[in-house]
């Protein structure tokens, strides 16, 4: 039986995966039905039974529902001491996936997929598999132009190449484009507009750091942290900003059932900052955020008591929070 309603999106460019899922959801699930006919699960912790049970549940007041299982561990290479790719548990999971009704669109995502695994081969044959590779510089520059147009602005291809070359993955590129398009007054982005945003300040770099922590991007977070420390920013100031960001994410998490306007009113956050906080809060459980806040508080005490150097302590903290 073909399972065209079961998909796997994998690859390095997570932003493109997220955008593809957003487009599918917008075309399939009306906003007022999202609460009942859309579900997102963490594939690192969700059990096979939990996924199957939720996929079998019939949609409410509609004929379609959508499920996304992010970071699906089932497609990763098995580590030593764990079940292999052809274990009986995998076979049972595949059998149950075969039974998922057509009214459920089930999308798995992961960064790296082991193409040798039985579940990958099954889905490649019976469902659909799509890889999202990192873009070449040329393709990334074209993507920058299209993204700028999405925000109602224009940019010359040579400047699009400049932005593509001076940003990391598309998450970082997107952040810079949002800043640039918010910054300029006219419709066309010029070099001076770009340099005004790219040159930045220590404050901007601290916000970049908290954004990377929120996106669990360890390498980029540590890179920005080192840059801040080299520029002379005080460790205690960085720690305060990290703690404040974590508290914002906790507030958003606790009010997860509130709409955007209600969140904006109750938390008093700028819409742009709030939107990012809502997105980043999805990357953590409430327990993880509370643990991270305790880590911040403990480090603050240890620094004040002279138990640890602030620079070393914050570097270890960032690594723990983004693991």
Notes on the structure:
The chain is an alpha/beta fold and 323 residues long. It folds into 3 domains: 6-131, Rossmann fold; 137-199, Helicase, Ruva Protein, domain 3 (Orthogonal Bundle); 203-321, Zinc Finger, Delta Prime, domain 3 (Up-down Bundle). Helix content is 59%, strand content 10%. The protein contains 16 helices and 7 strands. The chain has helices spanning 14-28, 34-37, 48-56, 88-97, 118-126, 137-150, 157-165, 170-183, 191-199, 202-214, 218-230, 235-254, 260-267, 271-281, 286-304, 310-321, and strands spanning 6-10, 38-42, 65-70, 104-110, 128-131, 154-155, 188-189. The strands form 2 sheets. It has a 5-stranded parallel sheet, with helices on both faces. Strands 6-7 form a two-stranded parallel sheet. Strand 2 (38-42), helix 3 (48-56) and strand 3 (65-70) form a beta-alpha-beta unit. The longest helix is centred in the C-terminal third of the chain and has 20 residues, at 235-254. Residues 80-86 have low confidence and may be disordered.
Query: What is the beta-strand fraction?
Result: 5-15%
Distance between the termini: 39 Å
Mean pLDDT across residues: 87
The CATH topology of the largest domain is Rossmann fold
Spell out the helices and strands N to C. EHHEHEHEHEHEHHEHHHHHHHH
């Amino acid at each position: 039986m073909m399972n065209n309603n079961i998909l796997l999106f994998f690859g390095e460019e997570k932003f493109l995966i997220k955008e593809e899922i957003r487009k599918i959801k917008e075309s399939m699930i009306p906003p007022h039905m999202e609460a009942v006919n859309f579900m997102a699960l963490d594939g690192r912790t969700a059990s096979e039974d939990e996924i199957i049970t939720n996929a079998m549940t019939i949609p409410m007041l509609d004929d379609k529902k959508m499920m996304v299982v992010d970071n699906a561990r089932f497609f990763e290479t098995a580590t030593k001491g764990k079940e292999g790719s052809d274990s009986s548990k995998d076979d049972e999971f595949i059998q149950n996936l075969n039974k998922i009704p057509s009214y459920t669109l089930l999308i798995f995502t992961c960064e790296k997929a082991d193409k040798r695994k039985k579940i990958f081969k099954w889905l490649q044959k019976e469902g659909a598999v799509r890889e999202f590779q990192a873009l070449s510089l040329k393709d990334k520059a074209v993507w920058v132009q299209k993204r700028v147009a999405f925000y109602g602005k224009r940019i010359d291809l040579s400047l699009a190449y400049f932005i593509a070359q001076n940003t990391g993955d598309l998450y970082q590129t997107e952040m810079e484009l949002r800043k640039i398009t918010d910054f300029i007054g006219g419709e066309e982005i010029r070099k001076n507009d770009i340099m005004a945003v790219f040159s930045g300040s220590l404050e901007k770099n601290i916000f970049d750091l908290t954004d990377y922590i929120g996106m669990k991007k360890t390498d980029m977070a540590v890179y920005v942290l080192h840059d801040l420390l080299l520029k002379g920013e005080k460790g205690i100031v960085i720690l305060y900003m990290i703690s404040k960001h974590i508290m914002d994410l906790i507030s958003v998490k606790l009010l997860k059932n509130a709409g955007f306007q209600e969140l904006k009113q109750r938390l008093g956050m700028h819409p742009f900052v709030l939107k990012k906080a809502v997105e980043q809060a999805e990357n953590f459980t409430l327990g993880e955020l509370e643990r991270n806040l305790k880590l911040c508080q403990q480090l603050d005490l240890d620094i004040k008591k002279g138990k640890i150097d602030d620079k070393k302590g914050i570097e270890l903290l960032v690594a723990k929070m983004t693991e």
